[in-house]
Structures
1.
Amino acid sequence: MTTSDDTGFSTRQVHAGSATAPATPRATPIYLTAGFTFSDLDESAAHFGTGAGFGYSRTGNPTVHAVEERLASLEGGDQAVLVSSGQAAVTVALLALAGAGDHIVVSEHIYEGTRGLLLDNLARLGIDTTFVDVSDHDAVRSAITPRTKALFAETLSNARNDVLDVAAIAAIGAERGGIPLVVDSTFTTPYLLRPLEHGAAIVVHSASKFLAGQGAVLGGVIVDDGRFDAAASGHLFPHLVQTDRLGGASFAEKHGRRARGAYIRESVAPRFGPSPSPLNAFLIGQGIETLSLRVERQSQNALAVATWLEQRPEVERVDYVGLPSHPHHDLGERYLRRGSGSVFTVTLRGGLEAARHVVQSVRLITHMTHLGDVRSLVLHPQSTSHAARSVAERERAGVFPGTIRLSIGIEDIDDILADLDQALVGVPVAERETVVL
Ligand SMILES: *Cc1c(COP(=O)(O)O)cnc(C)c1O
């Protein structure tokens, strides 16, 4: 569009200066645009027909796509779909597999938002859930029914820091006709663990946490392994193998082993619509560039903090899988060779009042609900993330009145320890806490 002086003011306010000279930026540019121009009719027709190129940012955007490619590569997956939050990633992944009348087997130790999604929102759509302790493999096996369309668990549980035996659970799904294992890998990131390499079918993350790292934006990602086997598990997923409801060939016919990933990308994510902002995608992409450095440092710091806390007289227990005292330490050594992450809980002998004292006394460490940040953070799970659970459920999850959750950052270790040291001043060194509310 030329914007010569003889066009009107209103025309020029939207068109003047819009033609930019081609340039080759080093950083991924932020394509903050709702859509993309077509050069001719054939190009627009091709886009609508086959999805070639970029048309509208809800279905594809170059900034978003760059981050998707990077995450697919880091996870060892086939394709990734970036969405607006971790909750959106879990929702999209599960809605790509299950519908009304279907069933999902889920770890009892999962993020509270996911638990609510399953118990309330997906239940209202007719998708049922059975919660099991996924470290009990027989319990997983016996929870599976002919309607089960997915197994779902987190790589490291909050709060007990249990390690998911990805290969064993994936194998149970495979035995039962190719039920895919969906893994929320937020706590471990692809730097520590790549579940697809151990047989999981789909990995999801809250990119708001370690992937972005700076704690500035929300995001989520779904990574599919590209190993959909229509012959083995097509009977479970008629929406992938039968004629497209909108007409035409099935996803399996069009995309082969990529059918499930294509369905996530072309059907579920753009229609339910949790599209990420290209600006947020850019910030997540920037964060990922330092992921290995941060997670390595955070894991080292967390191990040092956990080791230090375990020796303290105020402390009843530390649930950090990096410690030899943790019941899953050996499993952790097998799956988490580069470190054990930086999120764990510590239970103080002095109960609720001791926990209150610490979260209110820290100075360097921030009291907030978030994790995976470059800053160290603390939260009291009993009164926040786990407040809706029964006492028995909380105890099974390792949440007691004196439990605090730490997410250790990249600060200098001496400064983190000094802050905890001063926050523990005045905390009772009482004998074992009896569990009362
Ligand atoms: C934070 C979190 C989520 C939800 O992610 P949001 O980005 O906050 O929507 C899901 N799973 C786990 C394990 C999380 O920590």
2.
Amino acid sequence: MLNIPSPEITPEHIYLSRRKFMSGASKIMLGAALTVACSDQTESSNSDFDSGNRQTDRDNLGDSWTSYKSITNYNNFYEFSVNKERVAVMAQDLRISPWEIEVGGMVKNPGRYHVDDLLSKFDQEERVYRLRCVEGWSMVIPWTGFPLRRLLDEVEPTMNARYVRFETLYDPVQLPGQNDGWYSWPYVEGLRLDEASHDLTILATGIYGRALLPQNGAPLRLVVPWKYGFKSIKSIVRMDLVSEQPVSLWMKAAPVEYGFYANVNPNVHHPRWSQDTERRIGELQRRKTLLFNGYAEQVDNLYTNMDLKIHF
Ligand SMILES: Nc1nc2c(c(=O)[nH]1)N[C@H]1C(S)=C(S)[C@@H](COP(=O)(O)O)O[C@H]1N2
Ligand SMILES: [Mo]
């Protein structure tokens, strides 16, 4: 039997469920084509960027940053395209300024914020994180942003608030993928309040010290490095503090495949593929996937006494 290493060869998370008619053989050929296209593009170096006054160009496990070119040209953003290599072009005209984000629900101080105001209000920090997509590929991305906790402190969640629910812009004209009736738009994600308040959880505004580009979720996107990439919702316009666990777009689309927690976990496999290993974009060898994407020391206390196979 041909061992297809990962669903990365397919362009979308629920590819198989949608395109059952596609034969195994043509899938493998498409896979080969995409892999070639991808390695072409990831070969490029970071040399066109001055990393002069940075403290490091590696993450905390010693891995090098993924090239800016790959980070900005190999994207999952279904509002534009399910083809990772087309997202960057399709997204370039997204109007990202002015941009407001509304924070409401169970908070003492609901409000609307201009992204520009958030940028001046909160110190922007650089955070180099691994991003592990549920499809089995990963990158190391030097984000700029600020802890989500800062904004939560500002709005003051009330006693009954237990979760944060996030929403992406809904605008089928600018985001043509939202005409695809397979999914329930807008893209929604959620975190438990303690996860949202964790120091690793940031709202990102930049990459490589530059302003975030539309394909990466400009002007403001969530980054939760110990969870699969799909939790890191892009181009956020709304956040609500709620008492009930939010239902995300992926939970609605395929509840057996995508749970609420989505913690990176090599011991809990996707029903259609293993999560044992991943391919770091720009590298040829697959590497072992780490529990909580290598951030177990920082986050495993959030999940004591929880069965991660049930709460996947
Ligand atoms: N709104 C929105 N957010 C999204 C997605 C999406 O399709 N729409 N894709 C997710 C997935 S599956 C991944 S892996 C990451 C990819 O982020 P990147 O393209 O910046 O690397 O974004 C996540 N956030
Ligand atoms: Mo992903």
